[in-house]
Every structure is written in structure tokens, then in C-alpha cells.
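Me: I keep going back and forth on a fold encoding question. No explanation is needed for now; the record alone will do.

Assistant:
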Amino acid sequence: MKLGYAFEIVVTVPDLRQSLQFYEKLGYKQLTDTTSPTQHDALLTDGMILLSLRVGSAWKTILTYFAENIAEKVDGFERLGVSFDEKHETGGKITGATLTDPNGLQVDLIQAAPSQVPTLLRKPISKAGHFAELSIETEDVRKSLDFWTKLGFEPTEHMPASPDSWASIADGLLMLGIYVKGYCPHIIKTPSITYFDAEAAQRIRKLKEEGMTFVQEIPGENGETGNAVAQAPEGQLLFLFGT
């Protein structure tokens, strides 16, 4: 079983205008002529993912999946031992559900027809490069793996033979990188939006020339910044890493 046919990353922001300016500076494009099945204040894309900015008192990032048969999915996942925090009903039928991964990441399932969700180009358009994964920090990699594999995620080609320090899994739509606390040589928040690109150093240099500042820079082989961490005004971290 899979969680759904599409997903979006929902980020709550105290100041919509300030956050919107940040993501647009990074090359995200606002989608203004589309209808989303969830309420949002601004819907953007980097060509590969949907990012919904929603006004809220403090930063929080939610992973939302869209599906047409939520009731069946909830029943199937419960049979696999998945526990839901909440179930939402409309007309006596489950049309939404919420669960939380072992590291505090909220996952929402929402009933929606494909026509209600914007179709993506599946081509990177942002200045950050190629969206790679959502990065998660954990106390226990194997416990996190147990949670996500029940939701249809499977090991990728990058998965280490012994996933004690980190793991790489995907469900055909999204890749997750799961890292034990202290493993990453850079700051990390759950979840962090991660980009990998062979030209990361050049992309970072260009963004700096355009006025973007980074909260952490990691030198590459030639001394130039090869990897960098950007932080949106609301607190969301975005990794721009070289391959």
C-alpha cells in the first residue's frame, strides 16, 4: 500500500509575505490559477514538489498525501499495525486522517480527486537544483524505518547494508533520508528540504551574489562553499548539497 498518488509539503509561517519572498528568491513559482484540496495561503512549486505556505503562529512542517480512497487506506494501514492520531469523517465516511512519525513529523492523508491537485512539470525550476529528499533526524533509525515501511516506503539504491546510522527509503513519489542524531556534520531539523546538484557550488555562489545568506556553509575541495544550509524566515531549513 502507498499513502497516495501525490503529496505536498505544508509549512506554517508567521509572516506569509516574508516567507513567500524567500522562496520566490530561491526560484519557487507561485501557483495562482489552481485549486488545492486543502486550504492554504500560498501554493508554490520548484517544478518537482508542491510547497504550501499556511499562516500560523510558529513554524511547523507537515507532509500531506492525497488519495481517493482514504477509508480503505486507513483500514489497510491499521491492519499493518499503524496507529492514527485522528480520523476525519464527512457523511459518515473517513475522508482524512493524521498520524505522526517517531520523530514528530505529522503526516496527513486527505481525500482528493487528481483533478483537484496541480500537475507538476517534474522538471527542476528552482535555483537550488534538484529536489532529492526530506531529511529526518531520529533517535532510532530502525524504529523510524519500521514506521515508514508500513506506509509503503522501501529501501533505495543508496541504502546502507546496516542502517544503524542512516537510511534511504522512497515510495515512488518521495525519498526520505533518516539520520541518527549526531551523524550529520551540519545542522538539521525534522524535516529539512534537501537538494542535490552537481553544480551546487555555482548555485550557492550565484544566490549569495543575489543577496541570499546561509546559516551554514561547508567548504568544498577547492575552498569554495560546496554545500550550504539556508533557513527560511519561519525556520524551515533547506539543504543545497553537491552530489
About this structure: The radius of gyration is 18 Å. The first strand starts at residue 6 and ends at 13.
